[in-house]
Amino acid sequence: MKNASLILSIIAIVAVAVFGILSMSGNRKPATASESAASDSTAVTAVKGDIVYLEFERILQGYDMANDNGAVLETKAQNIQSEIDRRSKKFETEYNAYMEKVNKGLITRSVAEIQGQKLQQQQQELNTFVNQKNNEMAEEQAVFMNQIVDALKTYLEKYNKEKQYSMILINQNGSPVFMAQPGLDITDEVLAGMNEEYVNNKKNN
């Protein structure tokens, strides 16, 4: 048997996925007054044929569907982490009790071997569970992002039938748009339209 610190490495397998979900949800916040004022003062001035852009992070933070689905995903991630913590603590308790008996000579060598093998199996089962949940959350997160991107694409196809821009760029972390005229930023206009459509669809369904 390896020592109980191995539990930490097992938990770490799922930590990235869970942390990603919690961080993604935690980063969503309503626009501040100064941000709102800035948005109001930079209305879209683009005309037919222009190249325009939108900020994906602002869509992700402000889109009601992203917030609703993200909250569900966050709750699931927290529940998974709680279950991992519970199982890990149980295993650690049993392992420490086993080692205490071995060190004090309270059990025979044959009994120690049997209990040690049982603990190894429990550790493998815990590792399998964590890997399974890690894959599950990674898939859930991928589906979440695909849903947002699909909703954005579907809306933009309808939106641009009216606007007829020559190109709509999706900017993320300063790429591909490093600098542009504020009036070419259609994020707020698109976000308002997507939220209105989402609310109406929820009412109808």
From TrEMBL:
Kindly give the Gene3D superfamilies that the UniProt entry links to this protein: Skp domain
Q: Which residues cross the membrane?
A: 6-24
Q: Which UniProt keywords apply?
A: Membrane, Signal, Transmembrane, Transmembrane helix
Highest rank taxon of the organism: Bacteria
GO molecular function terms listed in the Swiss-Prot or TrEMBL record: unfolded protein binding
Q: Which SUPFAM superfamilies match?
A: OmpH-like
Any coiled-coil regions, as ranges: none
One Pfam entry name: OmpH
Q: One biological process GO term for this chain? A: protein stabilization
Does Signal show up as a keyword for this record?
yes
Query: What is the similarity comment for this entry?
Result: Belongs to the Skp family.
Record protein name field: OmpH family outer membrane protein
Give the organism, scientific name.
Candidatus Cryptobacteroides intestinigallinarum
